Amino acid sequence: MAGTGDLMSREALRSQVGTAAAIAHHGELIQGVFKDDGGRLHRGLVTLPITGLRSEASFARSDGDAVVVHPNHKIKASAAAQLTLEFLNVTGGGVLRLQSSIPVGHGYGSSTADVVASIRAVAAALNVQLRPSSIGRLAVAAERASDAIAFDEHAVLFAQREGTVIENFAGSLPPLLLLGFKANAGAPVDTLQLPPARYDSAEIQEFGVLRALVARAVRLQDPYLLGRAASASALISQRHLPKQGFGEIAEIARRAGACGVQVAHSGSLFGLIFDLFASNLKRRAALVAQQIRRAGFKDVEVHLVNAEGRTW
Amino acid sequence: MVTLDVDYFRDLETPRLARLAPNLVAAAFPLMKLMPARFILDRAASNGELKRGSHIVETTSGTFGMAVALLAAARDYRLTLVTASTLIDAKYKARLERIGATVIALDDPRGDGNQPGRLERLKEILATEPDGFWTRQYDSPGNWLAYARLAELFIRAMGKVDCLVGCVGTGGSLCGTASFLRTVFPHLTVFAVDTHRSVLFGQPVGKRMLRGLGNSVLPQNVRHELVDEIHWVGAYPAYRTAHRLLREHGLFMGPTSGAAALVAQWVATTLPDAQVAVIMPDEGHRHAETVYNDEWLSALPGWPCKEPSEPRTLTTIAPAAETQWTRFLWLRRSLGDVLETQAAGEVPPAVGAAENL
């Protein structure tokens, strides 16, 4: 009878296909180094999620040891699937399929989205619900540096090289309209080739102030404070990975009454942050989009953050 | 959520935030100088300037000395504080010595604090000590950098800050907090509080009755370009306001905190739509037998006096009596610029932040 049991469980195994998705982001609201409760410094970031772009993964378990990935160049996703199987104490492998609408190389977090979708798909194939903190840790293990997309729209200060949460802001970001576009003529940035930024004492101290702004902005759902934090972090980023036309964009943002300017700190993305409930927003956003295009920037797009079903 | 820090000093340096009016929040510190002292020592320890058992030196008899003394005692550093006999009372000296500090009180025949003599003595000590470390609160960037934490606390409690009010002695607390707040709120209006006959904002040096703010020399940490308005508060209105803080808010603070609160309450009343933050640097205990003692107060010439309800706006910088409160529109200029226009007899514009709104 033992033989029948084995056969049945193997059958059950094969039939389990897990599917999952992960959203993209538009770079970071803030990124720098931050003190933990013991005063030690950690590199950390607050991701700006956008739900319009996503990566979808399916994972079908197989008897073999290996994880086979399609398309086969997505080796970080494959490594993440392997690590998830190990984390869940499961032997065997499987077939991982990925389909993504996220452009590569601009700071949309295409790689992390693949990785997070893969981890979730493997867990789903095993009928397990993983905590965001575990997904974040596995993502960092798979790709060395990761963003906080495992937490979706929940705002956290995430140590992107350690996979830990430095501060949980205990809420989601306020509803925003983001006018996104690409700097440097839309040329992609190879994030793995970037050396980690070296910050001076004044910058390190300022990051604590920016973190306080984000905490307050999340607690009271205040887009203005979030914009102030993003602009200051973008200005610091400008000293480490300069984007052409930054001054011009800052001026357009100021004149348009935007809450702030946001950048992908290791990408080419720019974003102008507006309060989604601001008066006359549709007309103002259209006007600003026109000014940005005229200034020579590419791919101006509208993204809604925490819009709760509202469309543009 | 309660989290305990590995080091109690981080908690000890944290001010209580007190709302004094709908648009006014005070940071009431037990001992503000712990914030820069801890930051400067932590930084020096991490970059190797400060080693195990190092000998720390500083020329202060004020609260910075007490802050360094507490840290040095807890962390096993030796400490020598060089001061002048005119600036330190026996009780404070005894308190410092009880926690292990060596206090050298130099003669002060001219009665001006003998800063050159103190510096000379400090340098002699450093010359003989290979592991000597001078905290340099007047000039070390660590002094102002430390106050990013205060900016954080204000932001977490208030969100947008429109006006900042604080005393100036070394410049660390006001200029540090202002510079971090203005990075994110460029419109921030900064009100500096000094006292008559302090040289920091262009007055001629003289005997100051109010201690704990102002200076007879100019520290590098005073950055005049950050300041929109300068207020000179005399000792009497500062004392009166300290009394009022205790009576109306239960805050037992030192007279410098009284001076800051006087200006801040005027700013908050004059600009009702602005969110105002004020820094109150120390508690009243050290002043229990003076500022909080009726017998001592009644011996003051002219006491009791009326608390002025508003400052007198100066167009020419000049000292005033200890009963007075004056103000001058600094307008983010350098000290050199202001002194030059004063010498040329140019009258500055009579419109300040308050008149603008």
Structural account:
- The complex is a heterodimer of chains A (312) and B (357).
- Chain A has 312 residues and is of the alpha+beta class.
- In chain A, the strands form three sheets. Chain A has a four-stranded mixed sheet with strand order 1-2-4-3.
- Residues 1-5 of chain A have low confidence and may be disordered.
- Chain A has helices spanning 2-15, 75-87, 110-125, 132-143, 201-219, 223-238, 246-256, 281-294; strands at residues 17-35, 41-62, 67-70, 93-100, 154-159, 164-172, 176-182, 260-263, 269-275, 298-305.
- Chain B is of the alpha/beta class and 357 residues long.
- Chain B folds into two domains: 8-32 and 142-303 and 310-343, Rossmann fold, CATH 3.40.50.1100; 34-134, Rossmann fold (3-Layer(aba) Sandwich), CATH 3.40.50.1100.
- Helices cover 37% and strands 16% of the residues of chain B.
- Chain B has helices at residues 8-12, 34-46, 63-74, 90-98, 115-128, 141-145, 148-158, 172-184, 235-249, 255-270, 294-298, 335-343, 353-356; strands at 16-21, 24-28, 55-58, 78-84, 102-106, 132-134, 163-167, 189-194, 229-233, 276-280, 312-313, 325-329.
- Chain B is globular, with a radius of gyration of 20 Å.
- Chain B starts with 7 loop residues before the first helix and ends with a helix.
- The chains are: A alpha+beta (312), B alpha/beta (357).
- The interface between A and B is medium-sized, with 23 and 25 residues.
Indicate the topology:
The complex is a heterodimer of chains A (312) and B (357).
Chain A: H1 2-15, E1 17-35, E2 41-62, E3 67-70, H2 75-87, E4 93-100, H3 110-125, H4 132-143, E5 154-159, E6 164-172, E7 176-182, H5 201-219, H6 223-238, H7 246-256, E8 260-263, E9 269-275, H8 281-294, E10 298-305
Parallel strand pairs in A: 3-4
Antiparallel strand pairs in A: 1-2, 2-4, 5-6, 7-9, 7-10, 8-9
Helix pairs in contact in A: 2-3, 2-4, 3-4, 5-6, 7-8
Chain B: H1 8-12, E1 16-21, E2 24-28, H2 34-46, E3 55-58, H3 63-74, E4 78-84, H4 90-98, E5 102-106, H5 115-128, E6 132-134, H6 141-145, H7 148-158, E7 163-167, H8 172-184, E8 189-194, E9 229-233, H9 235-249, H10 255-270, E10 276-280, H11 294-298, E11 312-313, E12 325-329, H12 335-343, H13 353-356
Parallel strand pairs in B: 2-10, 3-4, 3-6, 4-5, 7-8, 7-10, 8-9, 11-12
Antiparallel strand pairs in B: 1-2, 9-12
